[in-house]
Design brief:
This is 5-aminolevulinate synthase. This protein is of the alpha/beta class. It has helices at 17-23, 29-32, 37-51, 80-92, 111-123, 135-145, 161-168, 183-196, 198-201, 224-234, 262-265, 294-303, 305-308, 315-328, 332-351, 355-360, 391-400, 430-452, 461-473, 480-483; strands at 66-67, 128-132, 152-156, 174-178, 207-212, 242-247, 274-278, 288-292, 381-384, 403-404, 406-408, 419-423. α7 (161-168) links the parallel β3 (152-156) and β4 (174-178). The relative contact order is 0.14.
């Protein structure tokens, strides 16, 4: 039996995720006129998002297509092994409480969560840890509590939205971005900071550096070793005055010995002040942990309002994380498989006869395809983009071929930089990866035929099917206006 499901009839299910997503963009202007002022005002701002094609809806699950979309990298979220270990963990503690009733600072603390924090910290080579509700919450807590007045925050320009939001809450008002993963500019910026910030030069204040191990939009790996070495070079006479905060949301489970992450892979546990690991991806649970020494943990607890005023994580929540870590130690073959499938993807992509044409014409752009052969690690996360006017056509085509990716558009990325976010998982087979690349190039061939004037339609087959359905539903946008134009404008 094939690992790639076939589509009988239309791939647009009236109640499916694609139809729900598109219909969510239908203007509510007329319906809002009869609403009370309060709700009418809210619909007005929602209609702005609908008109901009970035209205979000909670979509029904897609169980019919191949998953190249979810964050379940190590397939732990669907793992019967993880589920069995979780249930066994509950059985080992039959008297566990379902709720915690209050904050960790009141009577919401309990022995099991403290043990879990200690075990996870030790696993990653840290002194202490603090469990919180999500990676977003963790980054907010880190940046809202740790930087002091007069400190300088130096951050990679492509850090996650949660880091940006956390930095906006920081006491440190001196915030400097450096170009993405540019070690030379990073070094020069450090020199400038040391020369122009007297408190840093006098060792009264510090520089805090924000980076991610694997960046969430393009899937590239942070040059962490080189950044640390540059910092040590510039601050050699100011030891301890520069510290790193590393977001390992996308590397835990995938990189490092036993999936410990990039920091452990490089042996930099003693060089990094704060590490954040989240559990909603490779661990197959939810929540996150902030790792550092006891001072870091005490600082977040004492100044982190979300920690101080939130009910503590529950026993089942912690048990899911703890059981996930236990199963993670058995996943060496799965990690190797993900690495192999990532290499296979790039090999198939770049060896295809249409690759030079697709790349030179701008029909296909995959940033990580450049130099993939020379990388020690090709990550599970990558981005595929095309010309802005045909972006949705590519998404529709892959979905029609039963491959599910995630369209990332403005305002998550700048205007004109939309891309399909692709994640390769332990549960993806070689047949699925090959089928996915074949589907990409079937779409590329359609685009080439349209531009050469040999296509039967001015849009791709899947796009035409979507647009015919949209016209019936009286919905506009997503390339439909462009699809009505002359062929040469495609």
């Amino acid at each position: 039996m094939s690992d790639v499901p076939t589509v009988d009839g239309s791939f647009i299910s009236p109640e499916g995720p694609l139809a729900t997503f598109i219909k969510g963009h239908r203007s509510q202007t007329e319906q809002a006129k009869s609403l009370p002022t309060f709700y009418r005002n809210l619909e007005e701002v929602l209609d702005v998002k609908r008109a901009s094609e970035n209205f979000y809806s909670t979509l029904p699950p897609d169980t019919t297509s191949v998953d190249f979309c979810s964050g379940d990298v190590m397939s732990m979220g669907r793992s019967s092994q993880h589920r069995d270990e979780f249930l066994a963990e509950l059985e080992r503690h039959p008297n566990f409480a379902l709720g915690t009733t209050s904050s960790r600072l009141m009577d919401g603390n309990y022995t099991y969560i403290q043990q879990a924090e200690s075990e996870i910290a030790a696993f990653h080579g840290a002194e202490a840890g603090l469990l919180v509700g999500s990676g977003f919450e963790a980054n907010l807590a880190i940046w809202a509590t740790i930087p002091r007045h007069g400190d300088v925050i130096l951050y990679d320009s492509l850090v996650h939205a949660s880091t940006h939001d956390g930095i906006r809450q920081a006491l440190a008002m001196d915030r400097v971005a450096f170009p993405h993963s540019d070690v030379d500019v990073f070094r020069d910026t450090l020199r400038d900071i040391l020369e122009t910030r007297p408190l840093v030069r006098q060792r009264k204040r510090c520089v805090l550096v924000a980076v991610e191990s694997i960046y969430s939009m393009d899937g590239d790996i942070c040059p962490l070793q080189e950044l640390v070495e540059a910092a040590q070079e510039v601050f050699q006479d100011h030891e301890g005055s520069i510290q790193f905060v590393v977001d390992e949301a996308h590397s835990v489970g995938f990189m490092g010995p036993e999936g410990k992450g990039l920091v452990c892979e490089l042996g930099l546990e003693k060089e990094i002040a704060v590490v954040m690991h989240s559990f909603g991806k490779a661990i197959g649970a939810s929540g996150a942990i902030i790792l550092g020494n006891k001072i870091i943990r005490d600082t977040v607890i004492n100044f982190g309002r979300a920690v101080m005023f939130s009910t503590a994580p529950t026993f089942p929540f912690v048990a899911a994380v703890k059981s996930g870590y236990k199963v993670l130690s058995t996943k060496a073959k799965d990690r190797e498989h993900v690495h192999d499938m990532a290499r296979l993807f790039f090999e198939l992509l770049t060896s295809h006869p249409l690759w030079p044409t697709a790349r030179s014409k701008g029909i296909l752009h995959v940033p990580l395809a450049e130099g993939w052969e020379d990388r020690v690690v090709n990550t599970h996360l990558l981005a595929i983009s095309t010309r802005p006017k045909s972006f949705w056509w590519m998404y529709y085509h892959l979905l029609s071929a039963s491959f599910r990716t995630f369209p990332v558009t403005y305002p998550v990325v700048p205007p004109g930089q939309s891309r399909l976010r692709v994640i390769i998982h332990a549960h993806n087979t070689e047949e699925q990866v090959r089928g996915f690349v074949d589907a990409i190039y079937a779409w590329v061939q359609e685009m080439i035929d349209i531009e050469a004037g040999t296509g039967t339609e001015p849009v791709t087959k899947a796009a035409k099917e979507v647009y015919d359905w949209m016209r019936q539903e009286q919905v506009d946008g997503f390339g439909i206006i462009r699809a009505k134009r002359k062929r040469e404008s495609c």
